[in-house]
């Protein structure tokens, strides 16, 4: 460790002007980053992580104001005293940023090369040839193949992972001393995430820059960071080297976060949750901001603001548990793990079955709109979902999992194949029968903000499906009241509009809407991927206990292996419209057979110490479903590909644990 | 009974429109999202002023939409019958300003005609003189008298205006006191000093100005021709005021005609897609590629011929003019729904893929309910903005079309007709400017208020405008 830190943030406070006066969004943040070090800020959405990075680069929106006692020292110079002109010399040159969304952070009308050259010309006095050579060098350095050709391409010609690499190349062009990476891998798939994290680590070693990594993902932090700061409601509440952060988290909030991570091992009990929600930053709170969600909280916590107290030599936490403050309760309630109900009525009835289902979207071109190709979103999928069980559909984005989910509900027409629900084929159903089917087959969507009509109150949303179905339930009001309580909301919320709910509450409302129809099967389309870790645990618990109570069957669509491990009984792994491996959860997670499944599991960042970022498990990205590779779709990326793989798609082998790979064909 | 109410077709439509507006207001006030947005509109000072101005215009228009016929007894045979002349409450309120007319042009506040006339003077010889106007204050003889009289009346209006505004502010503070903890006198003082947190002070000022203008008209219009007279000696102020109803009707009735087309077809095209979308797109693409003026001219000419051939259906002059006005509204509506329809189709296309619509489909909700309960409420903000913006455009369109000769009937008093008839006089020396200026002033205030209000609406309702 160098003796002088590169970046020192002292008492950073940002206030926002509301109608009730100034309210602190960031409250006296203190941290420092040494040269060549990765410091991670971790926290749930809305805790002020992004505002911190904006404050450092001085790109705060005009409504937010820095408090005068804040100091941000870069190599000893206070950035807050610099003029705008001087600051623009710092931005891009000494501090560079990578944003979360690679789709929107590149300018779509400029070539990749031009966007890099722009930075080079701004900060260096290269001549044309030298600048271009340097740009290609940079593209090469971030792992873009055929960098010379890519130099002249436009962003839309690149895949998501490539765009994020270009973004990194642009930010590196100024040879910054500090790179701020704001959720750099949140928008990309796990296999790409592993590649990008690896790349960042390599680049950091080559160029010796410091990285401020901002993330909500504990796995990413565990793999990539050296030191960690945990943020909660605008404050840093824990500060630790990554090893201690993982092994012995000190603050009750951090402990709660780790406990809330779903896992295969925890599947027979409810997850530990942190009750309640992150308080809104503008609320103005007395005492510790976490007090009303904390199991250990006592009177002092509600009246006094805790300072950072030493836990060990480099580890401090803002919690009175580590102070010599008196009045601690003698025995903080031990957190108990709640066991789940036993399965209500195990049965082997197959509720939902798909036989070789295909969903093709025609691509039309020309004046006559002739069909020139098909996008084979779902290309022959056979599944079986049994009563009271959960089948998880796992795969990277674009593999067709959501399309399949919608096709099973007949929200999308299938091109071929058959979906059978309780013995009836839904393709040939009459309108009336289909309406009836709608009651027994429900769906919960990913985005809790888009899935509820903003112009309807909760009660109307819940009862919507029942209104046209007369005589089904006598007392709709009582039914609605029962439902909201069932999903953990209060009756008073029945007359609120969706925008008055938090993300987790909205998702509970979605669950209530689905339950209102008294379904047998619920298709859960990534129900927790838009939620924070602590809220995710609440929703997973809800879904799991409802299943045990009511014998529901779930088709659980997800890309998150840890969630799947907790929820699923069976797993089906999808790649490019086809299921490559299918079987019981234990078998697949412990002994994956298909090379794709193996790679997928390997790419998931694990919260372990013996980490050292795994070698990028897979090269390249998922090809387009418009022109899938010949033979086995996976062979161009497969480390074990044989000649045979290029010719024909492998058959399905195995009984309980099915796999489609030549390696397992006898 | 001395009078008999007359309901012109456009009157009924106007009442209907007001009822719908009130109904929409009631519905919107129950919607929490809408209420919040409306609050934002009303708290925006510029929008508040515009709203008050628009409401004043609306009140004038409403007064002018209550028509009746008077019983007349002929002197010769003692028979009574209802006059063919249809009057409105506004005519009564203006105290017969429209009845007494001069011979021809006269300048604002003039005592004499604008043209010389041959007249016998006191000595009995014929002479070319500027004859004195008939219907002005007879006690005013010279320019000196006039100045005194006019300033006196303005002073009276100012005093009365201030008194009325103060009374209004008292009532207003009484009302506000019920909602806040402040004492009455404190509330009143705050209001008058303009220190209230919400723009109530500004509201009061606006109302005060409007009261003053009304008083001014009341005190001066009977005594002088405030905006002069036109070619046939009609009071220009009277015409400008009567034009308000025409403008309002054109703006709002057209919207009424256009809205169902745009809303239903747009939502259907977007929601169903496929062949329905193709047909609707084809219709509006075709319609919008025909020059609008041509279509309007053709429709208006055929209506005119129809009216001329069926005199039994249109017994009064007012009825005839009214039929043409409605026809103009309909044809304007038919030609102007396409742009809103296109916007709504796009928005629906986007909404169709949103999860809550998908969820509704998964719940087994039928297409009609999805469109009426999910799609339309979620595009309402666009409709509202489009209506407010189109309204002012249509008022201006009336003036242009009438000027070209395919607008309202020449007997209908409208800003377009005023401009049209004033056009030739612009070449005259000295120029006759007052007709044009009056029409311009009234139209300008109206359209400006409508535009400012539309802007405020957009700011409050458009989700893309960042809310801070």
Can you walk me through this structure?
- By secondary structure, chain A is an alpha/beta fold.
- Among the domains of chain A are: 7-225, P-loop containing nucleotide triphosphate hydrolases (Rossmann fold), CATH 3.40.50; 268-322, no CATH class.
- In chain A, the strands form four sheets. An eight-stranded mixed β-sheet of chain A has the order 7-8-9-3-10-11-13-12, with helices on both faces.
- In chain A, helix 16 packs across helix 17 (503-516).
- The longest helix of chain A is centred in the N-terminal third of the chain and has 18 residues, at 190-207.
- Chain B has 468 residues and is mainly alpha-helical.
- Among the domains of chain B are: 137-220, no CATH class; 243-461, MetI-like fold (Orthogonal Bundle).
- Helix content of chain B is 66%, strand content 6%.
- In chain B, the strands form two sheets. In chain B, strands 1-2-3 form a three-stranded antiparallel β-sheet. In chain B, strands 4-5 form a two-stranded antiparallel sheet.
- In chain B, helix 1 crosses helix 8, helix 3 packs across helix 8 (236-272) and helix 8 (236-272) packs parallel to helix 16.
- Chain B starts with a strand and ends in a 7-residue tail after the last helix.
- The model of chain B has no long low-confidence stretch (mean pLDDT 83).
- The interface between A and B is medium-sized, with 31 and 21 residues.
């Amino acid at each position: 460790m160098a003796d002088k830190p590169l970046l020192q943030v002292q008492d950073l406070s940002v206030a926002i002007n509301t109608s009730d006066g100034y309210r602190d969004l960031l409250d006296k943040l203190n941290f420092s980053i040494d040269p060549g070090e990765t410091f991670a800020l971790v926290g749930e959405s809305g805790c002020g992580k992004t505002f911190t990075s904006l404050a450092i680069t001085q790109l705060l929106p005009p409504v937010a104001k820095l408090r005068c006692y804040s100091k941000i020292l870069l190599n000893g110079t206070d950035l807050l005293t610099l003029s705008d002109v001087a600051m623009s010399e710092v931005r891009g040159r000494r501090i560079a940023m990578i944003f979360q969304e690679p789709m929107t952070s590149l300018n779509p009308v400029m070539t990749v090369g031009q966007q890099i050259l722009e930075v080079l010309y701004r900060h260096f006095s290269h001549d044309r040839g030298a600048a271009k050579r340097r740009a290609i060098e940079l593209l090469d350095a971030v792992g873009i193949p055929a960098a010379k050709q890519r130099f002249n391409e436009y962003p839309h010609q690149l895949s998501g992972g490539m765009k994020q690499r270009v973004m990194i190349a642009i930010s590196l062009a100024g040879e910054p001393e500090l790179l701020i990476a704001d959720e750099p891998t949140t928008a990309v798939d796990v296999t790409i995430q592993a590649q990008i994290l690896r790349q960042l680590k390599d680049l950091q070693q080559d160029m010796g820059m410091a990285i401020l990594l901002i993330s909500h993902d504990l796995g990413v932090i565990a793999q990539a960071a050296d030191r960690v700061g945990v943020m909660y409601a605008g404050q840093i509440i824990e500060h630790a080297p990554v090893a201690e952060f993982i092994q012995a988290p000190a603050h009750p909030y951090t402990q709660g976060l780790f406990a809330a991570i779903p896992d295969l091992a925890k599947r027979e009990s409810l997850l530990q949750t942190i009750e309640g929600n992150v308080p809104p930053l503008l609320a103005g709170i007395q005492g510790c901001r976490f007090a009303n969600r904390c199991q250990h909280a006592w009177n002092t916590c509600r009246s006094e603001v805790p300072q950072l107290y030493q836990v060990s030599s480099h580890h401090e936490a803002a919690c009175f548990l580590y102070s010599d403050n008196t009045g601690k309760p003698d025995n903080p309630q031990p957190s108990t793990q709640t066991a789940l109900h036993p399965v209500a009525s195990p049965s082997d009835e197959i509720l939902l079955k798909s036989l070789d289902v295909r969903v093709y979207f025609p691509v039309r071109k020309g004046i006559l709109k002739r069909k020139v190709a098909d996008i084979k979103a779902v290309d022959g999928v056979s599944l079986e979902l049994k009563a009271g069980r959960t089948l998880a559909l796992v795969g990277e984005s674009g593999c067709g999992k959501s399309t399949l989910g919608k096709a099973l509900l007949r929200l999308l027409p299938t091109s071929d194949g058959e979906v059978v629900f309780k013995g009836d084929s839904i393709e040939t159903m009459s309108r009336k029968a289909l309406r009836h089917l709608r009651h027994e087959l429900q769906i919960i969507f990913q985005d809790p903000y888009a899935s509820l009509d903003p112009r309807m109150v909760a009660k109307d949303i819940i009862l919507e499906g029942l209104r046209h179905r007369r005589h089904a339930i006598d007392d709709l009001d009582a039914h609605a009241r029962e439902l909201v309580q069932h999903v953990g909301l209060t009756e008073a919320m029945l007359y609120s509009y969706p925008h008055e709910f938090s993300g987790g509450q909205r998702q509970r409302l979605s669950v209530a809407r689905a339950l209102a129809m008294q379904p047998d099967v619920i298709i859960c389309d990534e129900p927790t991927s838009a939620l924070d870790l602590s809220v995710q645990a609440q929703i997973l618990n809800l879904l799991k206990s409802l299943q045990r109570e009511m014998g529901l069957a779930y088709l659980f669509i997800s890309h998150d292996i840890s969630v799947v491990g907790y929820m699923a009984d069976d797993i089906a792994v999808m790649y490019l419209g086809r299921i490559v491996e299918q079987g019981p959860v234990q078998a697949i997670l412990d002994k994956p057979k298909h090379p794709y499944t193996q790679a997928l599991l390997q790419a998931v960042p694990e919260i372990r110490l013996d980490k050292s970022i795994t070698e990028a498990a897979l090269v390249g990205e998922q090809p387009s479903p418009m022109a899938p590779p010949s033979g086995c779709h996976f062979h161009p990326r497969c480390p074990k590909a044989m000649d045979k793989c290029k010719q024909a798609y492998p058959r399905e082998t195995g009984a309980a644990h099915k796999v489609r790979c030549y390696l397992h064909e006898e | 009974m001395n009078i008999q109410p007359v309901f012109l077709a456009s009157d009924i439509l106007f009442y209907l429109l007001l009822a719908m507006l009130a109904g929409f207001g009631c519905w919107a006030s129950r919607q929490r999202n809408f209420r919040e947005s409306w609050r934002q509109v009303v708290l925006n000072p510029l929008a508040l002023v515009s709203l008050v101005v628009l409401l004043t215009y609306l009140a004038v228009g409403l007064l002018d939409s209550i028509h009746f016929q008077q019983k007349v007894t002929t002197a010769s045979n003692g028979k009574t019958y209802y006059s063919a002349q249809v009057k409105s409450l506004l005519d009564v309120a203006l105290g017969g300003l429209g009845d007494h007319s001069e011979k021809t042009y006269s300048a604002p506040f003039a005592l004499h005609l604008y043209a010389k006339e041959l007249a016998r003077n006191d000595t009995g010889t014929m002479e070319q003189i500027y004859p004195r106007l008939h219907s002005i204050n007879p006690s005013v003889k010279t320019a000196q008298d006039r100045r005194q009289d006019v300033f006196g009346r303005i002073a009276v209006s100012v005093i009365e205006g201030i008194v009325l505004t103060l009374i209004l502010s008292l009532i207003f503070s009484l009302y506000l006191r019920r909602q806040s903890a402040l004492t009455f006198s404190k509330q009143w003082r705050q209001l008058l000093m303009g220190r209230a947190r919400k723009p109530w002070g500004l509201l009061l000022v606006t109302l005060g100005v409007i009261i003053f203008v009304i008083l001014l008209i009341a005190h001066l219009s009977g005594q002088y021709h405030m905006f002069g007279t036109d070619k046939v000696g009609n009071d220009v102020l009277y015409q400008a005021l009567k034009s308000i109803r025409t403008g309002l009707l054109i703006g709002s009735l057209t919207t009424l005609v256009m809205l169902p087309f745009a809303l239903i077809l747009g939502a259907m095209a977007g929601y169903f897609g496929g062949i329905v979308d193709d047909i609707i797109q084809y219709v509006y693409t075709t319609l919008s590629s025909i020059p609008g003026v041509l279509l309007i001219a053709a429709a208006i000419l055929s209506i005119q011929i129809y009216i001329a051939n069926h005199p039994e259906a249109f017994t009064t002059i007012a009825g005839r003019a009214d039929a043409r006005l409605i026809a103009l509204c309909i044809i304007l509506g038919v030609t102007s729904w396409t742009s809103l329809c296109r916007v709504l189709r796009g928005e629906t296309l986007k909404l169709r893929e949103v999860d809550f619509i998908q969820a509704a489909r998964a719940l087994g909700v039928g297409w009609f309910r999805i469109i009426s309960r999910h799609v339309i409420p979620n595009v309402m903000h666009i409709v509202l903005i489009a209506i407010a913006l189109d309204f002012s455009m249509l008022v201006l369109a009336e003036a242009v079309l009438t000027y070209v000769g395919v607008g309202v009937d020449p007997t209908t008093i409208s800003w377009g007709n005023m401009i049209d008839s004033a056009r030739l006089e612009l070449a005259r020396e000295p120029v006759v400017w007052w007709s044009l200026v009056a029409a311009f002033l009234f139209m300008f205030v109206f359209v400006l208020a409508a535009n400012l209000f539309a802007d405020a609406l957009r700011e409050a309702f458009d989700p893309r405008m960042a809310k801070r």
